[in-house]
Design goal:
The structure is a single chain. The protein is of the alpha+beta class. Helix content is about 30%, strand content about 25%. The strands form 2 sheets. A 4-stranded antiparallel β-sheet has the order 1-2-3-6, covered by helices on one side. It has a 4-stranded antiparallel β-sheet with strand order 5-4-7-8, with no helix packed on it. Helix 1 crosses helix 3, helix 2 packs across helix 3 and helix 4 crosses helix 5. The termini are far apart.
């Protein structure tokens, strides 16, 4: 009788296998399943297609070892909680940690000459229907957030807008995301000052952004990032 596997575990294993992150027994298990299990092989192929698109515009520059270590150290699973300003389902990024690592490496290889000096916090924003996914990274060394779309986009004639807030605070616009798969935005002072749980969200708005200062269109999703601290704290 064929052994049953948890779909979420399979998806995570397929992502890590596609990213060449597995070693030892885990690598041998994934290789065997990819050769014998057609459904699992399809998952691996799907991840390879999705991940390859993230590197289309990147120059062939290898990451520095210190950068890779900083990225992987930032990826640690934590339990997400729903944001109060819009009750949509929030999911933490780390169901497939490899995609976070890949997105982070792409950002830092492209934009940085040296690894970040402050803490990094990684999470994923996922829509209820799964048609929109964003990897979000908060870089406290520069008080910026780097977002990489891995699925979905704003509807035609609309624009993405990024929001954030601290506990029991209203959503504040972080900035517009007009085009491209990746955007780097500076955190407003009140968001940079958040100490503890930082909530991020993405909505689709009219071109030019929300006219009210709050989300007016579809909120694709939100995620809470607990434990955010300032460098040296």
């Amino acid at each position: 009788m064929m052994q049953e596997h948890d779909p979420d575990d399979d998806d995570m294993l397929a992502a890590e296998f596609a990213l060449r992150m597995l070693t030892g027994d885990a690598l041998e298990t994934a290789r065997r399943r990819a050769a014998e299990d057609t459904a699992f092989a399809r998952r691996v192929a799907d991840w390879e297609v999705r991940l390859s698109a993230l590197g289309d515009d990147l120059p062939p520059v290898p990451p520095r070892p210190a950068t890779k270590r900083a990225v992987l150290a930032a990826v640690s699973p934590v339990k997400a909680r729903p944001a109060f300003w819009r009750r949509v389902r929030a999911r933490q990024a780390l169901g497939a940690a490899g995609i976070v690592a890949l997105a982070l490496l792409a950002v830092f290889v492209t934009d940085r000459a040296s690894p970040p000096s402050g803490p990094l916090y990684a999470a994923e924003i996922v829509s209820d229907t799964g048609d929109f996914r964003v990897v979000a990274v908060v870089d406290k060394s520069s008080d910026e957030v780097i977002l990489t779309r891995t699925r979905g986009a704003a509807p035609a004639g609309r624009i993405l807008q990024v929001w954030a807030h601290g506990p029991d605070a209203p959503a504040t616009s972080v900035g517009l995301w007009p085009d491209g798969n990746t955007v780097r935005l500076s955190l407003p002072p009140e968001i940079a000052a958040v100490d503890g749980v930082l909530t991020l969200g993405v909505s689709e708005e009219p071109v030019g952004g929300s006219p009210t200062g709050s989300p007016t269109g579809r909120v694709f999703g939100t995620v809470d990032i607990p434990g955010v601290r300032h460098p040296g704290a």
